[in-house]
Amino acid sequence: MCVPGPGGTGKSRLIDAISCYFVETQRKEKLRKLGPTAVSASLIGGHMIHSFLAYLRSTKHQKKTVKPDSSTAEKDWKYVEYLIIDEIFIVGLRLLARLNELLTLGKRAPPEVPFGGINIILFDDYIQYMPVLDKPLYANLERRSSTCLPTEADVQYGVGHSLVLQINTAIKLTQPNEN
Ligand SMILES: Nc1ncnc2c1ncn2[C@@H]1O[C@H](COP(=O)(O)OP(=O)(O)OP(=O)(O)O)[C@@H](O)[C@H]1O
């Protein structure tokens, strides 16, 4: 699901309301909130996406991505059933694909199940700033020549793109609120 809406239409307020609902219904551990930056994460009382991706990260000296630590991922995501991601315009296709990889691992889900079966709610408009060193979620992927082998980045772009195409609900907030 995605919840787009310009500034002032109540996205943060809605995230607060959803958080309160999970607390009131004693299911706090089932909801996780992530932001792509420290500021976005702290504004919604959540964590940075990258803090969970640390053990999927490859370094200059390790050409291949480090083998993910499945026991840590399973512990991290054991109870989570709903995931809110704010400021989605900073999240690119590769980052979404890596998050998908992490959740698939954490939930021990088959690869065809998006985000390991966790319900994802993406907040904010896609089209604002461009994500850094990544392609925006609305990017149209160019077809590569069939003689050219896809790079790891190409594969991740493709996975991210197919995840975006699986978003089945959009609730657009349009009414600005003034206090
Ligand atoms: N349902 C509501 N009833 C009353 N006030 C509201 C409601 N929703 C939002 N507001 C108020 O409107 C203002 C803007 O809301 P909010 O910060 O949630 O918007 P936003 O879409 O997250 O904006 P931004 O993208 O700029 O952060 C806030 O002062 C908030 O308290």
Automatic annotation (TrEMBL):
Question: Could you state one GO biological process linked to this protein?
Answer: telomere maintenance
Name the Enzyme Commission number(s) assigned to this protein: 5.6.2.3
| Top EC class, one word | isomerase
Q: Which cofactors?
A: Mg(2+)
> Which reaction(s) are listed as its catalytic activity?
ATP + H2O = ADP + phosphate + H(+)
SUPFAM superfamilies in UniProt = P-loop containing nucleoside triphosphate hydrolases
Q: Which UniProt keywords apply?
A: ATP-binding, DNA damage, DNA recombination, DNA repair, Helicase, Hydrolase, Nucleotide-binding
Q: Which residues form the DNA helicase Pif1-like DEAD-box helicase domain?
A: 3-136
GO molecular function terms here? Answer: 5'-3' DNA helicase activity; ATP binding; hydrolase activity
Which parts of the chain are coiled coil? none
Q: Name one Pfam family in it.
A: PIF1
UniProt lists the family membership as follows:
Belongs to the helicase family.
Q: What is this protein called?
A: ATP-dependent DNA helicase
Q: Which organism is the protein's source?
A: Rotaria magnacalcarata
